[in-house]
Amino acid sequence: MAVLECSRCIMRSTDDPDLELVDGICNHCRRYEELLPSRVFTGADGEARLAAMVDEIKRAGAKNRYDCLIGLSGGVDSTSVAVKVKELGLRPLAFHVDNGWNTELAVSNVEKTVKALDLDLVTKVLDLRQFYDLQRSFLLASTPDADIPADHAIQACMWQFARKYNIKYIISGMNFRTEAISVPSWSYGHSDWRYIKAVHQQFGREKLTDYPHFGFTELGYTNVVKRVRIVSILNYFDYNKAEAIKEMQERLDWRPYPGKHFESIFTRFLQGYIFPVKFNIDKRRGHLSDLINSGQITREQALEEIQQNDYTEDLIRRDREFFCKKLNFSDADFEALMAAPVKSFRDYKNSYGFVQFLRNTVNVLRKRGWYPK
């Protein structure tokens, strides 16, 4: 079968089996164009909307010690959010989830950010025995969704901290310009507790008594009853990652990572080695394609960068040893895991249809101005 490749970005059918081209342009680029007006504001309009949003956040949190909640991982986007909310005069509470996989650089970046910006920080340390068992379960399930346990726990802690401190606004580091591409076959289940439970019930050993999680009932209660809102503040101005990195280096002594989400050793090994070797997925194509669509790089620059790889053989070897030791995989276990037939979330119980309904509903509300960007 011929390989399909978008003429605008660098997405290919070998990476995304559901890729569709119309006049040479893929479905991801067409979706980008369709949703951009409802997700991103720039110029004077963006400034006015951002000012109005900040006023509302300050009003809603006027009687509280903190008027907003921000996650802090040590990565580019979360640190950019921390810098921006302080510039805007907001009073954030920063939270961090320690899942045992942080690199020394990530820890250093978080510490520097907290100190330089004078942030209050709360940290949730996961029960690592239970958490590693869940990660191990996803690897044995043979789906590319092994980062879901970390992502779901972060979201669960986010909702918990918002309710605990009576905070009505969560400032997210998500930004549509550079994180628009969503490929279900790459990663699914961030909010799907049914799917997570199904995988763990089949492959897990530990009871998840202390693993932070949430279902749709709790999600509805937090959003509808408690009226907690997530604001992607980076969508309200012309956010440029290269410029943001330069500013953070100068202001915070922040140090960049060689790859996206490489602040986590687990994610680094998963996306840098397991994804391309077992699943034939190179997530850099999605990240670079978003930068093309946002005008931050050209297609030629993306094609040149995709040929480079900062994930050296020596680092891969060290990460593999660390990875297997933490998750109790022998060399034979790991080789068997890598050779196992590829599966997807569709092979396990899930709530995909309902999740898509919620996502589409929120997009409609955003288009009508009834939900923050």
Description:
The protein has 373 residues and is of the alpha/beta class. Helices cover 52% and strands 8% of the residues. The longest helix has 18 residues, at 43-60. The two termini are 40 Å apart.
Rounded average pLDDT: 93
**Total of domains:** 1
Q: Percent of residues in beta strands? A: 5-15%
Flag low-confidence runs. Answer: none
Shape type: globular
**Rg measurement, Å:** 20 Å
Count of DSSP helices?
15
The third-level CATH topology is: Rossmann fold
Order of helices and strands: EEHHEHEHEHHEHHEHHHHHHH
Brief write-up:
The chain is an alpha/beta fold and 373 residues long. 52% of the residues lie in helices and 8% in strands. It is built from 15 helices and 7 strands.
